[in-house]
Records
---
Amino acid sequence: MLSQCLKIEESDLREELEHNLNDFFANETQSSLQGIVAQQWRILAVDATIDSAIDNAVAAKNKNTGLVNKFASSWSSSKASELAEEVVETAFNSSSLKGKLNQLSENVTEEISDKLELLSAQSSYFAINCLQTFISSKYSQPFVAAFDKNIERSVPDPAEVVSSLPASVVSFFKLRKGSIGGIGVIVAAQITKRIAAQISKRVTQQVVERIFARLGTGALGGAFGEIIGLAMIGIDVAKSFEGALPQIQQSLKESDIKRELQNEIASVVEEELRNESVQIEREISNDLFSKWLEFQKEYIEMLSFAKNLPEFKRILERYKNDLDKVSSLVARSLVNTGRASLELAIQDGSFERALSLPESTYKILEIYSLPVLIEWANLAGNQLEDVVETELYKSLPPKKLDHELLVDILSLQDPSTISKLSLLETDTIRSLLLISKRNLVSLSNNLSVDDLERLSGYLQKLEQPQVNQLVGFLLGDPEMLRNSNVMAHIIQSRDINAAVQFWNQAANPLSLLNGVLTVLTGAISWHLFADKSGLPIFLLFLLVPILLLLSIIRWLYLEISKVSQKQEPQKSQTIEEIGESHADDKSGSTTQSAD
């Protein structure tokens, strides 16, 4: 019969389940119920109760019926039948026989209830097996396990459900556990327990009501009358004055009458079971179909891919023990990847590449598409989980990084610092990574993203020794980074240490004088001196050496002038003396010539 389940179409699944169950019930309910009735009949000793009730009824009629009527019943079949019906009515309305037949009906339906539970279990088993066959053929075998796991959540206490079933049902399921899976057994048991309990109660009530209804309307009277009529043929004339009561009494105790009553009870039970089987079929098919709809709702996209893409079916076979992960990846990928792109990813192997990644890394898919996840995986390697944990992926695209820079960033091992760095450009990050890891983390804890970007700009202008000097300064006073003028002037200084030391000194005349000297030597920027001292004092300290210099120049000038003035008369005298000497020499020469 399971071969029929391979041919079921999706749109006809519900009707086909019910139809196949109907065929199953038709094949499985052929066994006769007479044996059950006969067995309970013997256990309850119904024969003795009937005989006693008839004896009591005949004795009552014998006492209350006149001689003429009794004599007439010996010769009139109508009178005999009338008398027999009165005996039957009296006997079967007796409290003892009514109680016994009621007990018989309850015992029969109770035993039928056990068989009904077994029949419901067999039907549920068949229906689940049929549904699993349908799922496996239309989609993929791993979906069968997923279906089992999905419906397992609907069973609050599987052990309690199974343990409360009759031994025959438990034995049936144990033998077939490997066929439909443990959860299939549990669900079938749950369906069995619920349906059988409802239906057996209805069957018991219907059997009792219909048996007594038939007796009350004389449904069995015809059979009794026929037997009595046959008994009339050899009535002894000597006994004619006693009427037909003795023959009626004997005939009503015949086994044929009791067998007829047994058959009637079995017929009523069988008829009620046939009526109820339709309800069983419907409830089983409805229950399982609703579970299938719940499963479809949860796995709708995966079922669609499995139906249309052979590559996806192969993936499912390889990941059959981790179908929840496949489902998670499909659902998350569809958000930002789209169905068409996801189909391509399934076909080109990138989807399966993503399946090999830790499921925690699928958080990337909450923001980006599947190809971006693959890019991160290729870039980060075994550090992809660190990328997710630090949320580096949220602001920094993988295309802007190389593996070395990524490793350097992750080596900081501080999510807050890494998060701030992720908001910066890669060149800015590289500059900040000139700072030692411990110092960078310490600074980051006290600086904003804008501060870090500003610091990077300063660092790009410095050599490593100067970087270290500046960082040491900022670790002690990170707020200073927000004073752009001071920072710019420190950076402009030739000696960062001297500039920092000057800035950290208490403002007093001596320190300011020292500052003037360092400014004059070019070690620090004169702008930095102005920032610390203020413009008036800066101008004052700047003018003092200028005035001093001017004074020195003036003094030198005056001294030189004095010296010049002293030397001028001497020079004039010397010239005169030279002139006189020259005149003397000239006159002497003239004299000599005259001589």
Note: Confidence is low (pLDDT under 50) at residues 217-241, 589-595.
---
Amino acid sequence: MTSRAGAAIVTDGDFEAPVIQGRVSFLAPSSLEEWTVETGGVLLGDATQWAPASGSQSLWLWNPDGGGTPTVSQIVAVQPGQRYHLSLSYADGPVRGLGEIPCSEVFPGSDPLQIYWGGQRVATLTGTHHLTDDWQRFSTLVTAGTAATPLKFTSPPLPMGGCPMVLDDVALSAPSATETATTLEASSNPSVAGEAVTFIATVISGDVNAVPSGNVQFGLDGAPHGSAVALDSSGRAELRSGALGPGTHTLTAKYTPAGGSTLAGSEALPLTETVTKADATTSVVFDPDPTVAGQRAVVTATVAPKPPSAAQPTGIVQFSDDRGTAIGGPQPLDAAGKTTVTVANGAGSYPIYASYGGDANFNPGLALASRTVNKADTTTTISSSANPVAPGDIVDFTVAVRVKPPAAVAPFGALTFTVNGVPASAPIPLGGADGVVITAKAPTTPETDIIGVSYSGDRDTNPSGDQLTQIVAGSTSLPPARQGSAPPPAASSQPAIPLLPAAAASPTATTVAQLTTMTRVLVEALRGRGLAALTRTDETLSVAAAGTLDQKVYTPKAPTSASATRRADNNILVASASHGFSGPGTARMRLRPTAVGRRLLGKSKSLRIAIVTRFTPNSGMPVVTLARLTAKAKASRHKANLTSTRTTGWRVQRATRRAIARSTAGTRHH
């Protein structure tokens, strides 16, 4: 039928057509006169199946054949902009074959009945497990948007099954001007714990042009929730809440008209708000990062709410390593959601897990971060108990290895004791001591040697080393060849040039010492490896000024002085090398044989040679050193023995470790 202003008629609102006996199933797509079955299916039953609320038949929103959500609709002719009174009767239906039994004895709940007007849901009704003759009446106010507005009823089935809804006596009519209707909705549903949710109550009256005034009292789980809220100019009242814990909560809204108003009060359908636990984000940082071996670091775990939650997580965090081993005990979060633990490890990379256990409002969480622990730097020093020392006397060389702060580990590497760059003993393991005292017997002949020590480092510490110049009886010449002493230098019109400086105060004096050290490396290589070492040994020199480094090797008659090499007619140049320095710096150099030298080196069983090394600075006097020895084609083998190794006459007798006080500084952290 055609609507008129202020009223409209729903065709066959009591479902009297078609007339059936018992019950009949209608599956989508089909129709019941003016009603269309859109999805699923419905049952039309007479009074023998269910006592109707009006007439002799009612509609079950239940598809006995399964599949699809039962949905029926009808297009209603209305006047756009007009407000209408919508009413209907609903009840829980019986379960097929069980007769008139309360549905609550079979299923824990009822399938909801959802009402749509003009495509918008205006209400959701739930069953109350009543008997067959216990109908519920619902009414509300709706506003027409178009001349042909769809009215739809649907009943989504519960996941575990529920009692079907029965519908009857649907009517649409002109409302009373004093009638009101209140609806309640939430800004977020479901929500999470700690999320700020706004509950909105909207009140309308039967007069579309009149906006109700007054207050709305919200309710939460059967008790008032806050104070009454006044309606705004649009008839809305809002209540913001962020304190709902996990679970289901029932919200209500009751409208009370303003004093002197002729409007009637109304109450919204209860709203079920579902609140779940919120997620949290867990993070881990280290301070400091990176660290060095044994250095303590503070591990901080922070647990923060993940939006939209604004609550503060509580509870505990358990730290652990990548093997699942706990680091300390459970640590409680403070008011800022933080907790700490202190760790110290050896060098390496260490994953650390922070496991948050959750609380009443938050789900558990897990974070992983890796910290880097670098090797600790060390300093090694060597000192002599007597310098100079008389030939054949005993000398104690004290070697100290210190681990630089803030590291807190002991050195477990080995020390190598050298004389002129050649190992003079087997490696000496420290085993956690901070050094050793090396007792050695000096050579029986005067000489000057470079005594060195190097620490190998270990898995927690870096290498380091040191050296000193040890004088035996105040010698100022290179160690003599082992086969015997060299003849004294020949007379020369030029003054003698010392091979080691009397003092190391000037750049030139420093260069003399460095030339001596550089040449000694070659001498020891020739003694240790034979003639083949002459052109296979790298020599390193650091200079303090710009200039030219030149080195020449002569034979068969080794000159007795540097100047004599230029006068001897029978001197044969065996090998040479040179390098130019543009300024202070370090360079590595290796000798190259001459054509004659290559033949001599290839066929000689031994060769008496003189090594002349000269550094000529761009400004200043040149510096020259001379070394003489007889080198054999094949060198003799040397056994590395801690108590009997000899190097240029030095004999190491014993090495005594220096113990340190045991503490966390002397403990490995792995």
Note: The chain has a mean pLDDT of 84.
---
Amino acid sequence: MSPRSKSSLAKTPIPALAKKDVASNVSTVPGKSTPAASVGTCLGDGSGSEGRIFLIDTMSFIFRAYHAMARQRPMSTRTGLPTAAIYVFVNMLRKLRDDFSPHYLAAVFDVAGRTFRDEQADSVTSIRKFDIKTQTFTEIEYKGYKANRKEMPEDLAQQVPYIRRALDAYRIPMLGVTRFEADDVIGTLARKAAEAGRPVYIVSSDKDMMQLVNDKVHILNPPKDNLICDAAKVEEILGVPPERVIDVMALRGDSIDNIPGAPGIGDKGSVEIIKRFGSVEAALERAAEVERKSYRESLQNNRDTILFSKSMATIDTNVPVELDVDSMRAGEPDMDALRALFTELEFTSLLKELLPVVEVSETHYREASSAADVSDVVKSISANGVLAIAVEHEDPVLPAEEASEEEGKQEEQLSFLGGAMNAAPVRAPRRMAISAAAGSATVVKIDSGEAGVKLREIVADDTVTKAIHDYKAAQHALAPIGISVAGVRHDPMLYSYLLDPTYSSHELAEVALRRFNLKLAGDLAESADIAGRLTASLRNEVEQAGLSKIYEEIDLPLVSVLTRMEQAGVKIDTAALAKMSVELEREIEAKEKEVHAVAAWSSMSARQSNSGMCCSIA
């Protein structure tokens, strides 16, 4: 179907793989040749030790990721770099690796520039379009292959280089061939692999790929719950077997790729015609046998356009590219590269899940046994230092499913100060921890005699400069037991929100992971220690960013205001609400009667209509 001439090296920003048997016009990225985990048997193809080859239709998934997130909350770094498509794509890669443990895989890209289809389309200047209202055909200008496609959105174009970096970090080779589309490269590699007896899974959601399915080649669609399409599934979805897909597409056309098809013959008609005649060529030869006038005339008057459409829709499986299975071998991810990438993109959750993190070490944590122990901590505060305080929170324990749901709600319903609008804990805290220097902290039982009394005295002392992560939550926790907090000048949670407002969570553990790559154990003394460290680090960044005035004159003063508002609650006019309730009940009752009346009339009308039909038939 296409010119078979060799083309020059693809000019893409992908390092070339030094392989003697790789065609000169193919660009690749090296993959580390370390054995991957053994392939599972969930796909049941009987591939044995050969291992399945997974070919990713990369740009298809990049666009799908982009449009899927366009309706969700925007994701970007604090510098303004959009990251939603990268995030979704990376998670797709992770899921593919986790679900199938592929031995061999490659990500196939389109290469910028004209393709052989553009060259073929240059010879076509006009096509016919069917006017459904007048039931006539009109001649219109043909503007070229994919002429209807818009330029890639700028915010998506910014993300593509980072997706390439992610593939590189996961050691997934990237392939692209000049003058050919990714579909053609995938089709050729799939054919060669199948001929070599290797099972192939084309990772794509594009129905065009279904023409490639056979006993060795399947389509894997991850967004559809890992739907696997064999020949039977293709026929179930499209109405024809894989070998007839291009015939249906030739009649149906493709408005996105500007493949004209047969005017006036849509999805249903194309399937009916191909199922009856077997191929486009046969349908054209026997067009006079088609009963429907618009279908018949379309076939009779658009032979060249239909054959051109079939040519454009056919995936070329003879692209000049070698099947280099060794270069596709799945290697272990480059953890350092992933760490650097996810840190730059501010993917905290991925950092936490995928990469090893450092736990807090070389610490001196202890429990106070006397008032002197508490005083010693205060005396050790440096000239410009602060006393970091952590308050023990004892929130009610929720069932697993409720807890998970509540976490999601809190992440989405953060107050503008960066903390969730949480109610006060059910039980009062029994302990607090204080820290005056990094690596040290002292835990004090609030009701522990002299030590507890001394702690209350220090907490209420306005002359002792303090730092508390989530100052508002601490006030809620301490108010019920009569402890007032004074002298709080620093709240690392507020600092974090000022510096990184796009993050959904500013909890201590999340901020510690983002800032210090530390995984917290949840220990109370550790919380006070880390709160102090974060205060020193983030306060400096706030000053450098020129945000000190906002913090000192707006954010920090508002904490106490919000605390009092939440403690006071909202006064409800129960009498007004009761009146509204009665009025709403009346309105609901009236509407309910209307619905029943309409439903009864519709039912009676339907019975009368059916009765009339029966009589006329009789």
Note: The two ends are 59 Å apart (CA to CA).
